[in-house]
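Friendly challenge for the regulars: who can give me the structure tokens for this chain first? No prize, just bragging rights.
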Amino acid sequence: MAIVQESQRAHGKYGNPTSAHESLGVLIEELDELREAIHDNSGTRTYAEAVQVSSVAYRLALTIESRDLSFFHRSGFVRPE
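First reply, four minutes later:
Bragging rights claimed.
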């Protein structure tokens, strides 16, 4: 699946997200690019940007799921249960 492949590529290039705030910034940037692709009526770009948005959200969810205490601390989250 393209989302998993993109997530693996991004992880290899950037590693895990350092905080939820970093992920939010990347997600906003990718959402803006998705909006532009949709407004340009470009199916190919819309698909690519949707994969990017999904990948960022997926990587964020995986990092939270891992219960990485340093990520939780940098994000201002309480300790994982």
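The mean pLDDT is 94. The CA atoms of residues 35 and 46 lie 8 Å apart. Your move, everyone else.
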